[in-house]
Write a structure and sequence with these properties.
Low-confidence stretches: none
Strand order of the largest sheet: 2-1-3-4
Order of helices and strands: EEHEEEHEEEE
Strand content: 25-35%
Number of helices: 2
Radius of gyration: 19 Å
Largest sheet: 4 strands, antiparallel
Oligomer: single chain
């Protein structure tokens, strides 16, 4: 299982972050550690809360989420995970499952079925798109449901291949997380699921609401 850390850096003098988990283009060395976590979103909550407080106090430190004991491009021994990117993925509507809200995420989600939208969104934009697509799915009795994926910043691996024609192909492997929005969203109603006796609590913890 991945192990996540929140590390501290010196905030560049003229840098203005776009989000609470943003990363400066020129990043210096780590200057401290805020904590260690077993879940990405727990680490993200700690980092964003620290950064919001740091900005409010006009302090010069900034928190970054990394995966410990892994290979990254910037720092030795860790892979930088923030800022997260958000995308929308379509999944098959689970048999016997009914949503209680447009932002519900079924517990049995483990694989996207179909095309993942390539548009990179903010978290709030992804929430609005998910809600709109799921409203269309419910109104039109569709067989697809839409969820938000959080994509970590640095890839786990990257390979480059060249063919005899001189063309280059790059392949990146990135870790993604299915987001369960915080608030009115839940897991939906599995009462009529034919596999309801099985342990399908695959979902991770909810995503922070303000990213």
């Amino acid at each position: 299982m991945p192990k996540y850390q929140v590390l501290l850096i010196d905030k560049p003098e003229d840098w203005v972050p776009r989000t609470s988990d943003d990363l400066p283009l020129e990043i210096g060395d780590r200057t401290g550690e805020l904590g260690e976590f077993g879940e990405l979103f727990a680490a993200l909550r700690a980092a964003t809360q620290f950064n919001e407080q740091s900005q409010a106090r006009n302090e010069k430190r900034w928190a970054v989420v990394v995966e410990a004991d892994s290979v990254g491009k910037i720092w030795r021994g860790v892979r930088i995970c923030t800022p997260l990117e958000y995308k929308i993925a379509a999944i098959w509507w689970p048999m016997g499952w009914e949503p209680d809200s447009l932002l519900d995420v079924p517990r049995c989600v483990c694989k996207a079925q179909g095309t993942i939208q390539q548009e990179i969104m903010t978290y709030r934009r992804a929430l609005a798109v998910m809600e709109g697509l799921n409203r269309q799915a419910m109104d039109g009795a569709g067989n697809m449901w839409y969820v938000i994926l959080a994509v970590e910043h640095e890839p786990i691996s990257r390979t480059i291949a060249y063919d005899p024609a001189g063309l280059q192909t790059s392949t990146e492997v990135r870790r993604v997380h299915v987001v369960q929005p915080i608030g009115s969203a839940g897991f939906g109603d599995c009462t009529h699921c034919p596999a309801k006796s099985m342990d399908c609590t695959w979902m991770t913890e909810p995503c922070p609401p303000a990213v």
